[in-house]
Amino acid sequence: MSMHLTVEAHVAAVFSIEATGRDAVLCGSLENNLILDTYAAVLERAGVAVRPLSIRLHNEIPLGMGCGSSAAALLAGVALADHFGALALGDAGIVAEASRIEGHPDNVAACWYGGMTVSAVDGDVVRVATFEGDPAWEMMLAVQSSSLATKKARALLPESYSKADAVFNVQRVALLTAAFAQGRLDLLKTGMQDRMHQPYRMEACPLLKSLLPLAAEPEIAGVALSGAGPSVLIFLAKDTNTLAAETRLRSVLGTDVELLALQIAGGVERTFL
């Protein structure tokens, strides 16, 4: 999605962070900072000295809202370690290292490569395929005021699923991937359906309960949780503009919920001076 974490870093005498954007106070803290902790951990694991950095960052990603903020921070930390530690990881190595730390490649691969990215771990290798996606596809992201920890969201899921639910989701995943590969916005309404995650997270994600019925309306191309939630992602149908969509969503949600107009974004851009 077209929300970014922008990081500028230089070697310095001591660590410092100047943060702007969303949640600037949290992003600018030196304590329990995921970017700095990851940067140091990757270098220490590689046996390379940790050089203090002066960092300026601008964050556009809501924290703890199922929008990939932790994946972006992890990747920033690994990329900084790769550059300042001369690790020569390259794109695949950065994604593999971030996936190892995260425990899975789903979010970090999508964050690094952009577009519609599917990934899987195969031994020590992360297999990745990316479709750039249609930049004309428009989305609205509904963000509630309280966050939902990914660990808590995962704990809401059952230990096993019925064969019918597994087949239902496999079919939808295949259709969703084909929708992005072929630019078929019309397939999202079915492709974004889910029986494995959303029914069990409904109570913890009240926005989903309010917005999921809108998937049946012709102005909406598809509705689903963003990541583990609690934010909800709404794809707009071809002839629906953001003003009309926001008016409809406000009629359901009221004025207290933040709505962000987004598009499909490309991958990471790096500049070295």
* Share in β-strands: 15-25%
Mean pLDDT: 94
Cα-to-Cα separation, first versus last residue: 27 Å
CATH domain class of the largest domain:
Alpha Beta
Report on the biggest sheet.
4 strands, antiparallel
- Which fold does the CATH topology of the largest domain refer to? Ribosomal Protein S5, domain 2
Determine the oligomeric state from the structure.
single chain
Helix content: 25-40%
In words, what does this structure look like?
This protein has 273 residues and is α+β, with helices and mostly antiparallel strands. Helix content is 38%, strand content 21%. The longest helix has 20 residues, at 163-182. It is globular and about 55 Å long. The relative contact order is 0.14. The mean pLDDT is 94.
How would you summarize what this structure contains?
The chain is 38% helix and 21% strand. With 273 residues, the protein is of the alpha+beta class.
Which SSEs are present, and which pair or pack?
Blueprint: E1 5-11, E2 16-21, H1 24-27, H2 34-45, E3 53-59, H3 69-84, H4 90-102, H5 106-113, E4 116-122, E5 125-131, E6 138-143, H6 150-155, H7 163-182, H8 188-191, H9 198-201, H10 206-211, E7 220-225, E8 232-236, H11 242-253, E9 258-263
Parallel strand pairs: 2-3
Antiparallel strand pairs: 1-3, 4-5, 6-8, 6-9, 7-8
